[in-house]
Structures are given as C-alpha cells and as structure tokens.
Model the fold of this input.
Amino acid sequence: MKVADLHVAQVSPREVSAGAEKVAHQLHRQYTARGVDSWLVVAEKQTDDPKVIELSNDSYRPAWTRALWRVADSLPESGAYHLLDRALRTIADPLRMLQIQRGIETISYPASAHIPALVPESLDVLHLHNLHGDYFDLRALPRLNALVPTIYTLHDAWPLTGHCAYPMQCEKWRTGCGDCEYLDRYVGIRRDGSAHNARIKRKALTDSGVRLATPSRWLMQMAEESGVAGLSAETRVIPNGVDTTVFSPGDKVAARALLGLPTDATIVLYTARSAKDNPYKGFETLEAALPLIAEQTQGDKLLFLAIGQDAPAYMLGDARVQFVPFVSDEATVAAYYRAADLYLHPSHAENHSLALLEAMASGLSIVSSDAGGNPEIVEDGVTGRVFANRDASALAEATVQLIRSPETRNRYVAAGVPRARERFTIERQVSAYLDWYLEITASRQRG
Done:
C-alpha cells in the first residue's frame, strides 16, 4: 500500500486551537497535502472544512433529553435561574449528573463507539489525540480497536491519572490515585472519584490494547512506570514538529516594525495561553523572577513581552512588562519570535512544547525549566539554558547572563536552528506517523 491509498481519521476535542489540538489539525492538513484520505473528527467544529466531522453525542440520546437540555441552554445566565437549569439537566440525564457530582470522568458519551461509521470511507487507521474535554468515553476503546487499528497519542498524563493532566509533585498515579489533594487541578473534578477514574482508564487500555505514542521520552517513561505502556500492543516516541517554513529566523527590525515594538530594546518573550490561570505554565515563577531581572539590568531598556494573557502593562524599574492576548495566526506568532532576543519557558509541567520548538526554529536562544520533556528539546549550554523547575532565582540568573551576552545568545541560536530543522520538523513528524500507519495496514493485510 502507498501513502495515497491510506484512509485515516483522527479524533480531537477541537478543530483549531493550541497544543495537542493544533498538533492534530497540523497532521490533518499535512496528510491531505500528501494525498492521504484524511478526516478529523472533533467535538467542536470551527471551520467549513468538509473533511472535518463534528462528533455529536446528543444525536444518540433520547429526544426528551435533548429537549430538556435545549430549554436549559435557553435560560438566562443570571443566578436566579441556576437552580432551574440544574434541575432540568438532572431530570434530562440523572445518571450523568450523579456521575459529575461524584467526580466520575467516565460519563457516557455514546457517539464514541460509532466514530468509524461517521467517516464515509472504510478506515485503515484511527488516531486518537486528547480524549479529555467532555466528549469521549474511554470505555469505547476496545470496540474501536476491534473495528479499526487504533493509535492513541498521549499529549499529557491524563490517561495515567485519576483526573489531572499532569500530577507534578504528586506520586499517587503510580499506585492508582485516590485521596486526591488537587481536585481543582486541570482536568478538575468536583469530588474525589480519582481512584475509580484511574481504574476505568487502566481497564479500557488493558482491554483494548491500543497502540500508544508520546511526543516525549519523558511521558513514555511515565507510561512505562505506571504499567500502562505494557498494556499496549506497541509503543513509539514520535516528537512533535513545527513548520520551519513559517517558524524560521528573519529580519528582527522588520518584525518589530510590523508589530509596533521598540527597535532599541532587548525583548524577552514568554508565551502561554491563559498563563495566569494555568498551573502548568509557570507564570508565578516568571513573576517572581522578573523583579530580580529588572533589578540586575537597571539602565538597560528591557521589554518583557507575555503573549497569551490580556492584562495591563506595568513598569519594573527601567523594564516594561507588556501583555498580548492569545494569538492564533502562525505568521503573527512567528513575527513575535523574530522580534525577540530571548525566550523564557518556565513551565512547571510539560510534555513536548510546541512553543519551545517554534522559538528554537525561529532563531531564539532559550531559558527553560527542566520540567517534563523540556530537556529533550533544549540542551543546557548548547541551545540554551536549563534551570531547576520553580527556581525563580536560577531563571533570573540565566536570563540576566544571556541579556548581557549577545555572543552566547548567538552561539545558542547557531546550534538551535539546525537542531530544530533536523529533529523537530512537521515533515519528520508526519513521515513517522505515516510510516507507522503503513506498517499497521500491511500487518493487518497479512492477517
């Protein structure tokens, strides 16, 4: 079989977004460009792409349930209607509401088991991405893998835990969770159903034997230590990739003129969607480091630019801290990278960051925490500086050193750009997955 003969469907919460959803959408576009019959099945469709199919769980539910939900959806959002809204939803689907109240994630999403039937063509491979987001029932995995060879790419640790995307300092994922101290940590639950959730996830993975992929060796090791990787028919580490025709070094002066940024300042960049509200992105470490950096660089004209957060600008001595709301357009994001002198990535938890890859490919030296898969991208002293997670003083020290040493920054860039082009391109990622699809299809045909 050739690549152009493949029929593939991917599953993702949304069509156009950031992180894992961006990965799935990029793969879909690249597969189509290579002649693959590629489909994307999403809970939330955002464009008019005919090869993107919306996964509607409502269509599999009773008409009276749908009718009551429509009434609840039409109610005003004022507090006076809160109890009525909740009562209607409870009457419409009492089991679902009971599970939510108990902190149970395995709520029935009946469309999950019917995904192959939604695609007009007979599928060769079904490729699952993030399955959290209130749209997918993991208990459908055995049925899906029996119908179509299925790959499940883990973009975070959620399949290994009782509810959270990253356990960070908590080690209970090793023993099945329970007595959870972090119920509000994304993906949050109302009560402690973590032990039940972890059992259901493990059973679904055990019974299905789906193939598992991770973008980082760090997350695969976590899957191995949890025992989940051993339940899979096959595992592979396939790093994320970025489009180096978009994210590449360019004219700094032109980029700053385009974005209205000062030409005479040293610009230090940070990007993270809803950074202040995301416990994994390390914004508090950045906030603690900024005054230390500003104090040690007095007299220098510095601009700290944080993309992904809407907040008022403020001054720290001679340094200006400026925020930019989330930017989805890749060309604009690439312009911000080109305009900057240095990229900071203080994340507390990370799998295989697209932002790090984009920054490196765009010709930025980097200061990154050692969380998760970050050191698999940034090599300390070669392509940037790596500091101990949550150590604001170490972040400040490394940043000040690079602000003061353009020569060191240039050396890191000279090593980083070719590394990104060699190891972390979208072409390399696409080829790795397509080769795997072909292997799976050939094995299935041999019987």
Notes: The chain has two domains: 3-57+109-241+426-446, 252-423. The first strand starts at residue 7 and ends at 14. The first helix runs from residue 19 to 33. The chain has a mean pLDDT of 94.
